[in-house]
Give the backbone structure.
Amino acid sequence: MGIGADGDAGGFGGESGSAAANEGANSSSGGGGSEAQNAAIDAALSGFFGEIDNATTGNEATDAMIDDALSGFFDDVDNPTSSGNMSMTAKIGGVIAGLLSAAVTGSLSLGVTVGRLAAMGLQRVDAQALVDKVSVGAVTPEQATSAATAAISGDGSALTSLGISGGSEGGAYSANILSDAASVASSVAATAPVSEEELQREWLNTNRSDILSAIEQGTMDIDTGINQALASLSPYANLDALNREAAILEDPTLILDDPSFQFKLNQKLSDVNNAFSVVSGGGVTGNMLIATEEETQGLASTELNAAITRLQPFINLSNQARTAMANVDTQGAQAKANTKVGGVTQLAGITNSAAGNMANSINSGANLQANSIIAGANQDVNRISDITNAATQLSQLFV
Amino acid sequence: MLAEIMEWVGPIASIWGAVQGADIAKDANSQATQVSTGATQRANALMMEWLEINRSDIAEAVKSGTADLDTGFTQAIERIQPFVDTGAVNRATDLATGKTPASADPSIKAQTAQGAGAVNNLATRMVGGKKDKIVDAALEYGSNYASTFLDAAINRTLPRATRSLEASTNISNIQSGLGRAKADLGVGGAAKTSNITGGVIPNVAAGMGDINLTNTASGINRANINTNLTSDLLNVGNQAAALFSRK
């Protein structure tokens, strides 16, 4: 990086900037412990920036995470010249150079670059204008780095000279920068869970829609299956034989008055009469009448039995088919009911879980916001306290 | 003159700082409390909103599922119903027990009529004074003879009676199955509703408790801030008194 152990800013070149933009993995040079510490700081910053970048994709920017990310960064504020630490200006410059370099090479989107610069304390409008100028080549990355670093350090004139309003002027890297960065961080953190809630709600609705569609589709599939099964069985479910049986039992003359039976009966009786005529010499006797009675009734009963028996296999087929169809009906109904209630149970489980997560997100975001408010107030109180102490000390000089 | 003014800069700054600091702290305390309790109220409302949706979803599914069961099981019964013929059972039973005479059975009545017709046809060829008596005797024989076909008549009806019993048994099973299925669905749905409700309500209750705790803590914080302010102002007053005493 070309940064000396005494904390001098050796330069804000693209090399060091790239190292910062690449999550601090490739510090090209530097003094021993300084390089390691810088890398650690870069890594910490990368988590911070990563959180900002991904705040709307479900990551939580927790207090602890932000604190971890910023602690290394702001250690330099407290000990800018201690061994192994870069000066704050150098550090800010390195990060800005890295961001701009990454934006120019396309490894970082312009929007993300602006967001990161804003997170470092540069006014967003200034950051946007600066990135725009760099991206079209109106300003070199080195010029932009120098101007932005100066602005964050309290001098906005360089930005103004580049045709940018310089609204970032005065953002000193002392307690002010800590306050600003904390504000940005808390803002991001407070926004992230809200977005997270919206994201969860969106996906919950998507999931619910998916499940409801699946239930509907599943129910339709069951209906289709039921209808196909019933269609397969229905040819065997004909009730004609059953109805014919009922009709014959109710009115046997349907069989006995039928010409075919009468023909058969006449044939039978003719045989009987002929046989008796041989004995009686052609006359009609009482025995002949009795024989006629027996033969007629016997033949009628046999014919009725045959008619009924003939129908039984077909009636049994129909009975079996209809029993099977009834099973299809009941099983299908149960399957549909189970699909609906089972699916909705899944739906309720997912919904319940997501609602709990959304509630947690709301509370988490509120906690971060509340902590940020308290932290900001503490900063302000501390500043007032510092002023008061200074005034008191000054006053003591005159006592 | 400047020295005298500067002596009072410290105490005045202290008063200003104490009052400003207290205001800032109280304002922050108030804002943080509002943010926290507002979020908890919103979280509770959200959980209750989705709970109601869940309960409604399950109730609707149980209702729809119950309607499916009614439709399917009723359809099943209607398919089997044609085989139910309790009349056949009664006819066979009445014939077998003698409650109904064989001659009243349609099949026996019909075959008797066939026999009588045949006898009468044959009798037209008879001559002589005993014709009518002989024919009457033959017809009476035919009526009595018909009872020998009683078993046949019963057996012709019995398959229908047997199938009727089977169909009635199946329908009975379907009806009881429908009752069980509807009960299972209703109880299962209620249990799931209960589980979900039981999982949410404690969280909502805890949220309400958190709101109370936050408000209480906020009140304590405010009291502490005021106490500290009083203490700070008292100290400044002491400093001022010391300053006056030196004069």
